[in-house]
Design brief:
The chain has helices at 42-57, 121-131, 140-161, 178-182, 190-201; strands spanning 4-5, 7-11, 25-26, 30-36, 63-67, 75-76, 79-85, 104-109, 112-120, 175-176. It is α/β, with parallel strands linked by helices. The protein has a single domain (4-198), classed as Collagenase (Catalytic Domain).
């Protein structure tokens, strides 16, 4: 099975936090603010949210989702921001694409993991396309959404545990193949479930 290095932490200097206006609070353990820069099919977006929710939900953390354009002026108990660049939709005749580099990155500042991540949809979609065969092409948008949900879940573990640690198994591995991203299941490891539970207990 071909594995690729797919996740990385990015060191940045952040000027401040966003979304702090005094308007109501969204009742959720963690709100994911998503900022879509390119095309995102509705089916892929729905599946991404469901898959990330299923994975993170095994630790007892509930996710709510809100488009960045709809979140201005809102206050959240706990939030993360995920930006999606490139095209998050299946293209049967894509341009030649460089396969190297991470699927997604999470920012750090002064050695601390920040609640800001970025997903490279073009790279994820390309890996999914190379992994698909036969009848899977008829479900391409669902599989892309599944893969994106797993990539997002991976980054959320970094953010929620405030750690760059990776696991030896499950969705939190440092390297995943396209086949793993669209497999029937790719859960959190028991270690990551415990880490998330412990982090939430001490907040």
């Amino acid at each position: 099975m071909r594995l690729v290095a797919v996740f990385a932490l990015v060191l940045v200097c952040l000027a401040g936090q966003a979304f702090a206006a005094p308007v109501g609070t969204v009742p959720s353990d963690v709100t994911v603010i998503y900022d879509i820069k390119g095309h995102f099919s509705k089916a892929a977006l729905t599946e991404m949210r469901a898959e990330a929710g299923r994975i993170i939900g095994t630790s007892g953390v509930h996710l709510a989702w809100q488009n960045r354009s709809d979140s201005v002026g809102a206050v959240f108990n706990d939030l993360v921001v995920m930006t999606f660049k490139g095209s998050c939709a299946f293209d049967p005749a894509p341009p030649i694409y460089d396969e190297t580099g991470p699927y997604a990155t999470t920012r750090t500042a002064n050695g601390e993991v920040q609640p800001f991540g970025e997903v490279d949809c073009d790279r994820v979609v390309n890996s999914v396309r190379l992994a698909m065969f036969g009848e899977q092409y008829a479900r391409a948008e669902i599989l892309i959404g599944r893969a994106l949900g797993r990539v997002v879940a991976h980054e959320l573990v970094h953010m929620l545990t405030r750690s760059g640690m990776h696991a030896h198994e499950g969705v939190q591995k440092a390297a995943l193949s396209g086949r793993q991203l669209i497999a029937a299941s790719l859960p959190l490891s028991a270690m990551d479930v415990d880490r998330l539970k412990q982090m939430r207990m001490h907040q």
